[in-house]
Task: structure prediction
Amino acid sequence: MRQRVAGNLLWMLAERGLQVSVGIGVVAMLARALGPEGFAHFQYAQSIVLVAASFALVCSAEVIVPRLVASPAPAAQHQLLWHAFVLRLAGGIAGYMLMCAYLAVTGPVAESWHVALWLGIAVLLREPFGVFTAWMQAHTNNRPGTLFSLGALAIKAVLVGTLFAMHVTAADGYAVAFAVEAVVLAALLAGYYLRQTPATAAQWEPQLARQLFGAGALFWVSFIVMMGARRVDQLILQPAVPAAEFGAYAACMQILDNFTMLATILAAGIAPSYVYAQQRLDDAHANIGRIALALGGLGLAGGLAIAACAPWIVTLLYGHAFGATVGLLRVAALASALVFADVALTLLFVHLRKPRWVAIKWALVLATILAWDLMMIPRMGSWGAIAGYALGNAVAVIFGAAFWWRYRPAREMASA
Result:
């Protein structure tokens, strides 16, 4: 059993690692093909789409997987997955419509419109069909889902590479490649599930739908608020500065997004054994403190390395046209170390099953960033957004550290 769990985890980590690697290559080709202004329009549209996509995660894996494990009968699992699929699809449609409404109100350039409409196809497909990935997780068999994800990613990379080799400079052409990835992955996941399960009809049960919606409401709200906190800086910055300046900032954040994803990958690999498997709270609590220090130190070391190599990294990935990204990256890379510590501290929220506090944390972070950016971006431009990025990460770490201190075992025993 341990070997199977370890192998399943390795497949998950391999998928994340390859996604990051291929993602960096795809972004590099996009930046070189589109230039600072075209890349700015593409990244702005992608930020809007990522916020809209959070509405589709109505019934998260934290809700689906335990229920699938508790109900091993194929008919019961099929019934559960059908309801989760419908809830996520409804959330995806709502997110897509809200995205269109936001674009209509803000009135960006036509290029951003076209890119967002194509990228938005993933909002309608990725999370609804992601219920089949949760089904694989419940059966401790992530290998097929990983292969499907990597296959779809490879198709996208080939399409983007072909467009880049053909010197295509239209952003919506590259957006089509992203949409194709979502369509291919959805088709592969659905096809595999239908081949592995008996063909049984599912009936709509309003009570089950309400249970799933209620159980996942806090996770859903937390994820929406978190995505808002992660992307609100770009939504505020884009109309306030020239396109080239926004493109430089977006390029900086793209590098840091891939860097900080390392924290999530490491936490996912460490937490099952060193946190969730611990029977005593004091052991899990102490381990989380050690993990936070270790990941924070790793993030700082990586941030220093990125800051030192910023000119080389930017030139290698984006070319000389993105020279303004270098200064931004040097400062923001140091602030990204806070993300590593925050990811580790969040493990305690999950271990104690307190999603309400996760929602409160991200609401506080979002409010802080929103207030700062609205005040400082008109005065400082992209440097104001960098400061807001650092401030938001600091608030998240302070909140997580306070929660960790509040639930320290010594206080729990004294209260008892």
Remarks:
- Residues 411-416 have pLDDT under 50 and may be disordered.
- The chain has 17 helices and no strands.
- Residues 2-53 form the longest helix (52 residues).
- The chain has two domains: 1-204, 240-416.
